[in-house]
Specification:
The protein is built from 10 helices and 11 strands. It has 205 residues and is an alpha/beta fold. A hairpin with a 4-residue loop joins strand 2 and strand 3. The radius of gyration is 19 Å and the shape is elongated. The protein starts with a strand and ends with a helix. Its main location: cytoplasm.
Length: 205
């Protein structure tokens, strides 16, 4: 069985979880640049690429954030288990101390929002009856409103440090996210016993 493992924020806890399944992750831990670990059956990548590899069957199962799955909605993968780690919240945030009257007026019109999560942001504002123009950025989203380029951001927060350090405050919470175990639908049938054993083990905690 091949497993798609996200590097970055969920990397260490993912490897700790795989250890509990009896998978030897020592080579992965000691190798920053290598991507495919044949013996352990692990391939490593950015969290947002995990659904792509799992959907294509290049990995049988994978670990990624609920936020990633929401943003990429409609992927052909099964979501098997909430792993609980990697908690964070998708929020709408703006510059602190802004004039409430100006904000109320703007809500009647058109807001410009910077985000890496265009679909989540678009759907959220549409659902709540507001028109927005989405400005897609690749990272450090918190910078965008400080330059006046946008009125607010939709981004993940965990400790709140990044927002605070940049003078931004949470206006609205959009969704909670944690790491999820996903599976390729064909693998889920062909390797049912193996994958079921993993899920059972995780459910048992
Ligand atoms: N404190 C956190 N901040 C941001 N993301 C977190 C946090 N804790 C867990 N996560 C999860 O980790 C993912 C982001 O991980 P990371 O920052 O390593 O990725 P990235 O380099 O931004 O890659 P990508 O381009 O795939 O989003 C999020 O999608 C989320 O599910
Ligand atoms: O609330 P905090 O604990 O401060 O964490 C939130 C920050 O972490 C993430 O950024 P990441 O490090 O993934 O970089 P990015 O902005 O380039 O995506 C996220 O986009 C926030 O910027």
């Amino acid at each position: 069985m091949r497993i798609a493992v996200p590097r970055g924020a969920m990397f260490k806890e993912t490897l700790d979880m795989l250890d509990t399944l009896g998978i030897d992750t020592s080579e992965v831990r000691s190798n920053d640049r290598k991507l495919l670990f044949e013996e352990a059956g692990i391939i490593t990548m950015r969290p947002s690429d995990v659904p792509t590899y799992v959907e294509a069957g290049a990995a049988d199962i994978g670990i990624t954030g609920k936020d990633v799955l929401a943003e990429q909605g409609g992927r052909g993968v099964y979501e098997l288990h909430d792993l609980g780690f990697g908690p964070c919240t998708m929020v709408f945030a703006t510059v602190d101390g802004e004039d409430p009257a100006a904000e109320a007026l703007r809500r009647l019109g058109h807001m410009r929002i910077a985000t890496k999560y265009a679909r989540i942001a678009h759907d959220y504002f549409e659902r709540t009856g507001r028109q927005v123009e989405i400005v897609e950025v690749k990272g450090s989203v918190e910078l965008a409103p400080l330059t006046g380029m946008v009125h607010g951001i939709v981004d993940l927060t965990a400790t709140g440090t990044t927002l605070r350090e940049n003078g931004l405050i949470v206006r609205e919470e959009i969704m909670q996210s944690t790491a999820r175990l996903i599976a390729n639908p064909v693998s889920y049938r062909i390797k049912a016993a193996e994958i079921d054993a993993v899920v059972e083990h995780l459910r048992a905690g």
